[in-house]
TrEMBL record:
Keywords: Membrane, Transmembrane, Transmembrane helix. The lineage of its organism: Eukaryota, Viridiplantae, Streptophyta, Embryophyta, Tracheophyta. It is a multi-pass membrane protein. It is found in: Membrane. It comes from the Eukaryota. Pfam families: Tetraspanin (PF00335). This is Tetraspanin. InterPro entries: Tetraspanin/Peripherin.
Amino acid sequence: MGRTARSCMQSLMKAMNLIMGMVGIAMILYAFWMARVWQRDSQDSSSSHHHHHSPSPWFIYTFLGIGVTFCLITCLGHIAAGTANGFCLYCYMAILCLVLLLETGMAADIVLNSDWEKDLPEDPTGRFHDFKEFVESNFDVFKWIGLLIILAQGTAILLGMSLRALGPNRASDYDSDDEYTHSRVPLINPQVQQLPAYVIGDPRFVDKNDDPVKPAPFGWNV
């Protein structure tokens, strides 16, 4: 029963990690696409202007960094769920808690601060503005995606705490090793049972040439 519950929690934790991994891969692919488009546009603009200098495309780098971070967290969570190692689970939960705090802070800043865009540097690619308009036009879809990501992260933290409380996996596949000890001993070392439990003393050997002295019968003279 314990092994079944552990296996179910491990599979569910891997599924939650898979959601974050898919989001991270999608963000990486989108960042590569934005970088390719920005590079093409920058080459066209530099050919028409002799001196062209633009600031760093921070939005593309940020998007790419978040996607890579999600993928790394997914790999760590998969290893922690498979091994149920206490140190791996602790690191995984600590990182997820930090990510949740950052996400909560960003969401609170966007909701409470109406001028949050002014705190960001200028985006030379223009992709930040396009992405913002795309999110606003599909706000319901992105709202459910955000809730799904937060739910997956919270569930993964709870599952990690449960696995850490249960401890690491058992090396034996049996419920009790004592039940199968006696049946495995002859296969491992069949000579063990042939040895005596204890030895009383050294064995005594009698030479056949030396006849033992027998007492004379009563009334006989030797």
